[in-house]
Amino acid sequence: MADRSVSRAEVESSFQKFAVHGDSKATGKEMNGKNFAKLCKDCHVIDGKNVTATDVDIIFSKVKAKSARVITFEQFNQALTELAPKRFKDKSKEEAVQQIYDLIAGKGPANVGITKVAKAGAVDRLTDTSKYTGSHKERFDDSGKGRGKTGRVDIPDTSGYVGAYKGSGTYEDKMKEHNA
């Protein structure tokens, strides 16, 4: 097999990239079923006609050890060898395996770092404190900065006077006048 156009190292590198995808504890030596399916999808091994996601799952289950939930690189190669003739029906087994390696070599998970912050128009409207009404308006000062607890909690008046009493704070003055 010296005439192979894709090196085993290139395929192994892709295997490792997908093996650690989404799992901070992964070493890259073993791949779970979810990441195997992702590799097959991202590298177009799954074409929707000859090879489906179900085929990939079945072959994954077939090559892994009975109690294991992951496959090694050797088992991965075995899985690809089984998938190749299904994916490339008109090719010999060796050519099919080579073409499947070509699909995978040098690839990594497709959606790494794609998540962007959605900045929809509605978000700006919803977070503009100047447009707030009712009790929500009380929670922010004129600049739009939150007022913390004072904006959320009714702070009781502990002065000892009833709410609408106008003569609040005049008791001492009256007592002075009375005693004088």
Automatic annotation (TrEMBL):
GO terms for cellular component: cytoplasm; microtubule. Its main location: cytoplasm. InterPro entries: EF-hand-dom_pair, TPP/p25. Residues 133-155 are annotated as: Disordered. Residues 135-155 have a biased composition (Basic and acidic residues). Keywords: Cytoplasm. It is found in: Cytoplasm. GO terms for biological process: axon extension; microtubule bundle formation; microtubule polymerization; positive regulation of protein polymerization. The keyword Cytoplasm applies. Pfam families: p25-alpha. GO terms for molecular function: tubulin binding. Belongs to the TPPP family. This is Tubulin polymerization-promoting protein family member 2.
